[in-house]
Design goal:
Elements lengths: L3 E8 L3 H14 L4 E2 L4 E2 L5 H11 E8 L1 H5 L4 H6 L4 E2 L2 E2 L1 E5 L4 H7 L1 H4 L4 E2 L5 H12 L1 H6 L2 H9 L1 H17 L11 E8 L5 E7 L4 E3 L2 E4 L15 E6 L2 E6 L12 E3 L2 H15 L5 H21 L1
Parallel strand pairs: 1-2, 1-3, 1-4, 4-7, 7-8
Antiparallel strand pairs: 5-6, 9-10, 10-11, 11-12, 13-14, 14-15
Helix pairs in contact: 1-7, 1-9
InterPro entries: TIR_dom, Toll_tir_struct_dom_sf
Protein name: TIR domain-containing protein
Pfam family, one: TIR_2
Length: 303
């Protein structure tokens, strides 16, 4: 089985106005189309291009236009263009684009005698439907015609996009509204002796209980600067500890941090803040964590 259903050989001048709309229509109905390699320019060999396409494609579409006919193709190449066959099966499908039978007859009588689709009477979508019927009769017969038309005119795609948007709306409650990070935890927690509410945690660090945001997302404008967070420090034996002051405004949760000096403890708290703010160097964090673990181990031994 060949890789492509069709290839399209065409003059470069016809790419934007006709060939690309045809390719879009062909692909929208399910055909595998190869055409970029078959944009013919001055000096190219028509027969070699066709032969190359037939190696990897079931059929070849050739767009015959004024630009196509103006190129200096050898007469034998034009004469043999639509007579190429594999066994008894014709594999070249000619399309006349802005040319008449007389135009083709003047260049190649043999070519003028071959049945071709004419863009004067058919749109790219109509031509795509005719090509589908020849190239993939199974797909043509097995798919509702209205569905094929919907694919070509974009209705099917718009319907899919609408469904996706509806799904996005449904999924938004599971994503951080500031950065889109996924929900990682949702659970009921007590808020008073008699009442509870839903705690929602997101991968970015945002946490909220009900509608009350206890920890903002780093992408949120409400995410505080470190210098704006009230910090308390105290000394215990040979270690200093730093923590966010209880009842601090803005509210921001960080685990208490330790250090040999007050400055080290605050710096460790700042490192934790930077992790929350997505600015942290993981290797540095490992070194700092190992140092803190060493301090705690030493303190336990002293106690």
């Amino acid at each position: 089985m060949k890789q492509w259903d069709v290839f399209i050989s065409h003059a470069s001048e016809d790419k934007e106005a006709f060939v690309e709309p045809l390719v879009i229509a062909l692909r929208s109905v399910g055909l595998q189309v190869w055409y970029d390699k078959f944009t013919l320019k001055l000096g190219d060999s028509l027969s070699q291009s066709i032969d190359l396409g037939l190696v990897q494609s079931e059929y070849g579409i050739v767009v015959i236009s004024p630009a196509f006919l103006s190129k200096p193709w050898p007469a034998y190449e034009l004469a043999g263009l639509v007579t190429r066959e594999i066994g008894a099966r014709k594999v070249i499908l000619p399309i006349w684009h802005h040319v008449t039978r007389d135009d083709v007859l003047n260049r190649s009588p043999t070519l003028a005698d071959k049945l071709a689709v004419n863009t004067a009477h058919s749109s790219p979508k109509d031509i795509a439907m005719q090509i589908l019927q020849v190239v993939r009769p199974d797909l043509y017969a097995g798919t509702d015609r209205a569905a094929l038309i919907a694919r070509m005119d974009g209705t099917a795609l718009r319907n899919i996009e609408a469904e996706l948007e509806n799904m996005r709306d449904e999924l938004r409650e599971f994503l951080c509204p500031d950065c889109g990070a996924p929900l990682t935890e949702s659970m009921e927690v007590p808020v008073t002796d008699d009442d509870s509410d839903n705690l929602r945690s997101f991968e970015c660090g945002r946490r909220q209980i009900g509608s009350d945001i206890t920890d903002p997302c780093p992408s949120s404008p409400s995410f505080p600067k470190f210098d704006a967070i009230p910090i308390q420090t105290y000394r215990n034996a040979n270690l200093w500890s730093a923590l966010v002051a209880p009842g601090a405004v803005p509210r921001f949760w960080l685990n208490p941090s330790a250090g040999r000096t007050e400055e080290e403890a605050i710096a460790s708290l700042k490192e934790q803040y930077d992790r929350r703010a997505k600015k942290y160097d993981k290797d540095r964090w490992r070194r700092e964590q190992a140092m803190i673990d060493g301090y705690e181990s030493q303190r336990d031994q002293e106690d």
